[in-house]
Input
Amino acid sequence: MKKLLGIVVLGLLLSGNAYTANEGSGPIEFPPKFEKRFKDYLGHVANKKQYKFAFAFHPDGANDWQAIKGGSSSLKVAEKKAIKACNKKAKKKGCKIFARGEKIVWNSDTIPSTLYTLIEASGAFDYIDWKDISIEIGEGPITLSKDATKKFAEYLEIYENNKNNKGWSIYFAVSADGKNSGDMAASSSSEKNIEMVKAMAIAECMSNNKKNKCYLYAINDKVVWK
Output
């Protein structure tokens, strides 16, 4: 769930002592197609610079990431939530922080160089400024592509994991042909914040859709496409 003018480096100026205890080390078993998942994550980091991002990993391959809006203290919250969500997926403890923002902090010689290549290339992504977005709910026949269907399933899982958090909501946008998508979560129930987050979800989708128009498809777990 990512305004969209380039990668924001998060956590680079933080004191190491406050965060290194959460950092992972040693060999990792990377799941299939992880590079695509990490590329999607980098897109979120770039698109949502008001947020602090943390990506957690279990050595066995389970992983999850979280984003929290706010100052430097939000990064600690994001790390805690990411580790908790990762442990839940792994069905056991042992998850540690793999990346903060776009920076990989896991200490291992087994991390594929292609992941660092993705980071280097991420600054070249062509993004849309959410402030220029017109928020519209989609209308007409639509069938989600295989990739968009998978991302919507992941979106619904994120909703289930966070729906009880006070003031939290999430939004899913898709292109008119159902092939591209974007999503964004709000941590505040204020109308101004929610409208911004809706626009950011659409902007992310449009950045994946060669700047072509995207529309709101779902709010929380409800499909609103007409």
Notes: Residues 1-19 have pLDDT under 50 and may be disordered.
